[in-house]
Amino acid sequence: MKIQLGGKAGTEQYPPEQLLDFVIAAGRAVSTLSMSAITFIRGLRAGQACFAWTWLDAAAVKTERIILGTGVTCPILRYHPAIIAQAAATLGRLAPGRVFLGVGTGEALNEYAATGVWPPYNTRRAQMIEAIQLMRELWKGDAVTHRGEHYQTRRPRLYTRSDSPVPLYISALAPNSARTAGRYGDGLITVGGEALDHYRAMLENFAAGAREAGKNPDALPRIIRAGRGFHRR
Q: What are phi and psi of 35, to 5 degrees?
């Protein structure tokens, strides 16, 4: 078992230029730190909320070793999955081999505030799964015509891509959703603060979902965010 320590880049806490300075300094000090920037729109009077994809691109060209990714972005309501696929592919080109895409079903704080739409969880889960499938098709570089239940495309193609697909980590806060992460993702993202039995069930379900999809769960990263940081197992 390999444990890798990391931290969260608080786009809701610091102005983007100051946060970038912090990450550059961290990247000089360590080589195993993973940074996660939250993509979201705040409905609060104070704080920060830079556009995380712009910030991640800046961090990619200003660092050399640090791992970068969203923790997490929602590719189902504010953003069409084709746009997130393009954003992740560009980031992967700027920072080859050190990028991951964290996705989830969203939060009302972000999605409803921006769109006025907030479907039930099962609908958002189905949207996320379809979004993941569409993004993976686009990362192959072919023209993709997709006629799904939630999304439509007409032969778009990603001309700018990284050499290999960006690993896709799925956010899960409950054991049932961890099974979905295992089946459809390349890794798991969750948060700390619950009882130990909660995480045992989460990891067992994640492993079960991975095995159902023919994957080795021991080879898949599991990120557990504790407080303002997270560790990657």
A: -110, 140
DSSP 48-99: ----HHHHHHHHHHH-SS-EEEES-B-TTTTS-HHHHHHHHHHHHHHSTTSE
Q: What are phi and psi of 186, to 5 degrees?
A: -100, 5
What tens-digit pLDDT sequence spans the chain (233 residues)?
A: 677 777 788 888 889 999 999 889 888 876 555 555 554 454 445 678 888 899 999 999 999 988 899 988 999 999 999 999 999 999 999 999 999 999 999 988 888 888 999 999 999 999 999 999 999 999 999 999 999 999 999 999 999 998 888 999 999 999 999 999 999 999 999 988 889 999 999 999 999 999 999 999 999 999 988 754 444 55
Q: How many helices (H) and strands (E) does the chain have?
A: 7, 10
DSSP states of 155-181 as a string?
S----S--SSPPPEEEE-SSHHHHHHH
Backbone dihedral region for residue 113 (phi beyond 0: left; psi -120 to 50: alpha; all else: beta): alpha
Question: What gap in Å lies between CA 52 and CA 120, rounded to an integer?
Answer: 26
Tell me whether strands 168-171 and 152-153 are parallel, antiparallel or unpaired.
unpaired
Which pTM does this prediction carry?
Answer: 0.90
- Mode of pairing for the β-strands spanning 168-171 and 99-103: parallel
**Which domains are delineated in the chain?**
4-232 (3.20.20.30)
One-letter amino acid for residue 66 of the chain? I
